[in-house]
Design a protein that fits this description.
Length: 311
């Protein structure tokens, strides 16, 4: 069993930890990726030293797969991050995986060699990503089944779950409601937490007296630090209902929230006892499970195509 492949297993607990942190806080310290980048460089050097004794064709194939892995995942990471498809931590994870797993590793245990199913392209980082996408696709299906079995029938049942208003401030995601009904572009709950902290009020006080909070004349003379809206942080005029525009102008924006989106969300939260929320699945969670599946089973998509006789 190559030493480089054994060293690669050190990445598993790190990816498990960042997946847990992403679920709980939606925040990942950038410093966590630096040791993995160093580990990736070490394993790549070990692989390169080992491949030098191989025939020229094998050497060229190795170099092509390494280059493909690094370039492809870096382009994916940059593109998805630039267009807002996922966060910076997800992009960094892609780059790390491209460096750590450019080719298929090999682990022998109990007479078996893992991964069990290996695609012909031989770029293991691509296998991890496709497995993560397939694993992630199970989440909305599970959400739909859970809502249906619970008797919660709503257009939002495909993408969200209901929570009580008291639970909103301890929840990540977006509101799926406005006073007019269902929406996919509702208020980001991080932005809600920022607004309440900035204004120096609570959701309980807002619900107790929505008319006063709706009037921008009730805004304080000075405002509090809004933080970044995480659940556990470290540490007007009459034309501006709720002071929404004043807030966004003062803090310089909050997760793409507009004054209209903020006002609509506050109107819902001021009156509804239960609201639908899109919890959102942080991609680092299916990415971790995709890595596990890839290391044990291999390429899910390639295995499916094999079963269907398409390859």
């Amino acid at each position: 069993m190559p030493l480089a492949d054994l060293l690669r297993l050190l990445a598993l607990p790190v990816f498990a930890w960042v997946a847990y942190r992403d679920l709980k806080t939606r925040r990942i310290d950038s410093r966590v990726w630096y040791p993995l980048l160093v580990l990736g460089l070490i394993t790549l050097l070990l692989d390169t030293g080992r491949i030098l004794s191989a025939d020229p064709f094998t050497q060229r194939l190795f170099l092509v797969r390494v280059a493909f892995s690094l370039v492809l995942l870096t382009l994916f990471a940059g593109g998805f991050w630039y267009f807002g498809a996922f966060g910076l931590a997800d992009a960094k994870a892609f780059v790390v995986l491209g460096l750590l797993f450019p080719v298929v590793p090999a682990y022998r245990l109990a007479g078996f060699t893992f991964p069990l199913v290996q695609p012909t392209h031989g770029t293991f980082s691509l296998t991890i990503i496709t497995d993560a996408v397939l694993v992630g696709a199970l989440y909305p299906l599970a959400l739909l089944a859970w809502n249906a079995l619970s008797g919660r029938l709503s257009p939002a049942m495909f993408v969200g779950r209901p929570v009580t208003w008291k639970s909103v401030l301890n929840t990540h995601g977006k509101l799926l409601e406005t006073p007019e009904g269902f929406t996919l572009t509702g208020l980001d709950l991080d932005a809600l937490r920022m607004y309440l902290r900035w204004r120096g009020t609570t959701l309980e006080d807002l619900r107790a007296d929505p008319d006063r909070h709706r009037n921008p004349a009730s805004l304080p003379d000075s405002f509090n630090p809004p933080t970044d809206g995480r659940i556990h942080p470290d540490g007007g005029t009459t034309t501006d209902p709720w002071g929404a525009k004043t807030f966004l102008d003062d803090v310089g924006g909050a997760y793409g929230t507009t004054p209209e989106i903020l006002r609509a969300g506050l109107e819902v939260l001021a009156t509804e006892d239960e609201v639908w929320v899109s919890p959102g699945m942080p991609f680092l969670i299916p990415l971790f499970f995709g890595l596990l599946v890839a290391l044990v089973y291999g390429d899910l998509l390639f295995g499916l195509l094999l079963a269907l006789g398409l390859v």
